[in-house]
Amino acid sequence: MTRLCIAAGGTGGHIFPAIAFAEWVLSNEPGVSISFVCGSRPMENEIYASRGYVPLCLPLSGSPFGAPGFVACLRRWKETVSSWFFFRNFLREEECDCCVLFGGYVSFIPLLACHIRGIPTVVHEQNGAAGKITRLASKLGKTVASGWNVCRPLKPGRFVSTGIPVRAFEQKKRGDAWNRLTKGKPFPKNNIIGVLGGSLMSERLIQLLGCVVQDMESQKLTYLLLGEPNDRIRDDFFTQHPENAVFLGRQWDMSDFYSVIDAAVARGGASTLSELMAWKIPSVIIPWREAADNHQEMNAECFVNMAAGEMWREDDPLDDLRDKILRVLRNINEHEKRFSEGDESERLWRLISSSTGREINYRG
Prior knowledge:
By secondary structure, the protein is an alpha/beta fold.
């Protein structure tokens, strides 16, 4: 039996593709066992638990390089040292044949530990701009899989485009899905816009839409806002738009949400964009301009080139945002919304097998 270690943490954008890939492998490769590794942030465990998995949790809350202040930096360095010994013991007990890294701060320890022990390692980079771990892995000679056809600054030949594994979904009847999401609110007669701010929820995105929804044309739409903003943001939005806005809270199973919306406004997280592409949902993408290496704008450019979408930057005129939302709605009939499961997981598995097969056989 092949033992596969999958490391993914930080946000849903890293974890959901990892779980999607793992579930494909478990369904299609009976000779493989999988162990998940994540960090200690509560949301990470919550996401894994939503799919019935219990990961190995490293005593790590974030990268020391991104710590806010000296005390936090010192604490994270202590966590990093503890996590190193913790993960090293795990490798000794599990005797993993291969490690697949899906990004996030938690991937640093597995990358170095597996490199030192000579365990084959493959990195899946969801973003169009390679993160620090991916760049380091490339320098160490590891195989890099990219979610898009670019992975800057890596040059073609230094990565293989496999796409982004997407969670399993089931298309539901719109009326039933609406009732489950909104607990019986009347089904709207107008178009429904889904607002996705990522697993951490973007309050800035809500504020931007709050300005746009005041427009008369936008008031004819219904907005489903996914996430849990603080009370002030929520109250401000409802004060201005009590009739056509519904906050849903977190939804780990997105089948109902994607089944009910006509179009979307979303941040540029790669996992979200890959799901919108799989559902063929026309979307306006608003990249988070503080994203590391500007990777959300790179993702958005890839999405617009490949799917039915528009990109709006935060320094563009608000009127343009309204116009783009209305424009993607006009494209609904041209792009029938339906979920189509791709072969991204299969392509990634084939890359892993071809990259590590000889080494796995040798180790076994």
